[in-house]
Specification:
Trp Operon Repressor, Chain A; alpha/beta; five-stranded parallel sheet; two-stranded antiparallel ribbon; Alpha/beta knot
């Protein structure tokens, strides 16, 4: 998979891709991540990428020309499955979307900044809009890093134990059950006996029960939606 990220602040994305799972995925050539500084395609000698908005109002707007030029340059080299704009008013990102995107080959993520982007970009260049929650960040860089992390970890071979991603929270519309490790008894706090039994049928049943109960209690919205789909 290849992911191209367009931003006016490329340094914000240095950290997330320099360590842990994402770095290992890059080192193993399972994903190719390119961060593009939009200012390279800016207008005039000052590489301008934003301007005042028509009609007045506070805040600058990202211009259409630099974004279109960069996206067209990328598209001239390969086909892209999605051109995604990170924006608070996009569809809320969830595990289902992450699963779907992980099956794609080439993605572009456009990070918004300032007051937003010229609406004509959204109308002509963007194929999908994603929000990571109902709040506003200073820019789309952190949101792009979140989406990239959630998608890349699903690519076969990225995680040491591939079944780990399949048992994550939300994969089956349930939260994950509680997990424990050694010691089995810490100051009187004991691991549930069933997990020490060696009876994997009982363990699986316990985990399913715990996942359902945890989802009902902590995320009734997810549980209710799951119940409605069954009906």
């Amino acid at each position: 998979m290849r992911i191209d990220i367009i931003t006016v602040l490329p340094k914000l994305l240095e950290g997330p891709f320099a360590d842990s799972i994402l770095k290992r995925a890059i080192d193993k050539d399972l994903v190719d991540i390119h961060v593009h500084d939009l200012r390279t395609y800016g207008m005039g000698k000052h590489r301008q990428v934003d301007d005042y908005q028509f009609g007045g109002g506070a805040g600058m707007v990202m211009m259409i020309e630099p974004i279109e030029t960069l996206i067209n340059a990328l598209k001239s080299e390969r086909e892209y499955d999605e051109v995604i704009f990170m924006t608070p008013d996009g569809e809320v990102f969830d595990q289902s979307t992450a699963n779907s995107l992980s099956l794609q080959k080439n993605l572009i993520l456009l990070c918004g900044h300032y007051k937003g982007i010229d609406e004509r970009i959204r109308e002509t260049l963007i194929t999908k809009e994603i929000s990571i929650g109902d709040y506003v960040l200073s820019g789309g860089e952190l949101a792009a890093a979140v989406v990239t992390d959630a998608v890349v970890r699903l690519i076969p071979g990225v995680l040491n134990n591939e079944t780990s991603a399949l048992s994550d929270s939300f994969q089956d519309d349930l939260l994950s059950p509680p997990v424990y490790t050694r010691p089995s008894d810490y100051k009187g706090l004991k691991v549930p006996e069933v997990l020490l039994s060696g009876d994997f049928n009982r363990i699986d049943a316990w985990r399913q029960e715990q996942a359902e109960q945890r989802t009902k209690t902590r995320r009734p919205d997810i549980w209710n939606k799951k119940s409605e789909l069954k009906d």
